[in-house]
Automatic annotation (TrEMBL):
One GO CC term on file: periplasmic space
Keyword Signal (UniProt): yes
Keywords: Signal
Gene3D superfamilies: 1.20.120.1490
Claim: Cell inner membrane is one of the keywords in the record: no
Domain of life of the native organism: Bacteria
InterPro entries attached to this UniProt entry: LTXXQ (IPR012899), Metal_resist (IPR025961)
Name of the protein this chain belongs to: LTXXQ motif family protein
Organism: Pseudacidovorax intermedius
Residues spanning the signal sequence: 1-28
Transmembrane segments: none
């Protein structure tokens, strides 16, 4: 069937986007993306520069990576919300003598809706970036995913 490669490619893109989003979120929490200002331009530029060096990206590929990073940053902000303390809504669930199940359900639905609404743009940006890599660069990305992030991974 012809749709199987398309499905596999879509799943790889979704997995890759999730991996990148998780990596950026982890980096943001540990390295101050949240402190880099509302647009996080300095942190994003640093990330694009670092990945650009590792993959030996040309100017067009770096622009596509920057677009992907901007989409991921917008997605992260949408999931995180406008609050200065992203953990406050979660802590509120435990504030009383019982766990607020209704509020937890609303919170999870809000976060899920934010991911669902922003995912098409993230996936499109990821596909655009990946599809414009040379085969050797694509292999480097696959190797990185296979190693689960190498030294940046929490699991090895």
């Amino acid at each position: 069937m012809k749709f199987r490669p398309r499905i596999a490619r879509g799943l790889l893109a979704l997995f890759g986007g999730t991996l990148l989003l998780g990596s950026l979120t982890a980096c943001a929490g540990r390295h101050g993306w949240h402190e880099a200002g509302a647009d996080g331009g300095a942190m994003r530029a640093h990330m694009v520069e670092r990945i650009g060096r590792k993959l030996d990206l040309d100017a067009d590929q770096r622009q596509r990576l920057d677009t992907l990073a901007a989409q991921l940053q917008r997605q992260r902000q949408a999931v995180r919300g406008d609050t200065a303390d992203a953990r406050a809504p979660w802590r509120a669930l435990f504030a009383g003598p019982t766990f607020d199940q209704a509020a937890a359900t609303r919170l999870v639905e809000e976060k899920t809706a934010a991911v669902r609404s922003g995912s098409p743009e993230v996936i499109a940006a990821l596909a655009d970036f990946y599809d414009h890599l040379r085969p050797a660069q694509q292999q480097q990305v696959r190797d990185f995913i296979e190693r689960r992030g190498g030294r940046w991974s929490r699991h090895g």
